[in-house]
Amino acid sequence: MGNNFYRKTAGDTIFNVVNIVVFTLFTILCIFPFYYLFINTISDNALVGANAITLLPKGIHFGNYVALKDVQDFGNAVMVTVSRTILATALMVLCSAFAGYLTTKREMWNRSFWYRALVITMYFNAGTIPWYLNMLGLGLTDNYLGYIIPAIVAPYNIILVKTYIESIPASLEESATIDGATTMQVFIKIILPLSKPILATIAVFGAVGNWNSLQDSLILMSNSPGLYTMQHRLWVYLNSSSNLAAAMSGGGAVTTGMLNNKVIKYTISMVTVIPIMLVYPFMQRYFEEGMMLGAVKG
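and the corresponding structure tokens:
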């Protein structure tokens, strides 16, 4: 037992202390920008305009967030973004899981060819104009499906799922096959439940990507304001914040001072960030496990 006992030296203690201090400071640096935005959105607007808010909020109120409901089309943009994020992410996860599973099957017709063709798409991009012309030709401009269909196939996520599934013992699938299970039954009852970590990981990737996406709405939905995403609306508002201030103040929801451009930018930035910040903590356990296990094999 004495040979296995390790006594910490002064150097070990110093190393641990330095690590704790450095990572604590790094964490503060990462969190503080969001904290600063948040305290400015709930502080008195006049004080925010005068740069009087530093570390603690003053004149706390939530009128800025309430006032967003009075902004024309903002509620519709939120609904488009939320529905697009949920639907596109769910279909992407399902497609990635099934495609990743199929590429692990040696009996798949021309498996190597299809897998390599999938990987090649990660290295070559035709550019924005050919992409737009392709979407135009497919009838996906000014069409809600323009958000959904292109997001279904994600090569990188398929590769992650494939790698993860290859780490699952083959004996489980073989036993199910011997018992008479079909390929689809094996996929649904064995592969999907055991792949929760990696599926949660790619779900985070997909949700963040769909939530933050601006280019597709900006380019594809230019003639359909009813299909603007929240990111698109916020981009428009940031470029005409003085008009937005009038719109937000007109509803009478804000009574703690005149809205100004700074308050507007802070508020809409927080509206963009908060949902993703709330989702990630619930997915973190699966996210970390999926990334570690999915990276074992190439």
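(Above: one complete record from the training split.) The CA atoms of residues 125 and 248 lie 41 Å apart.
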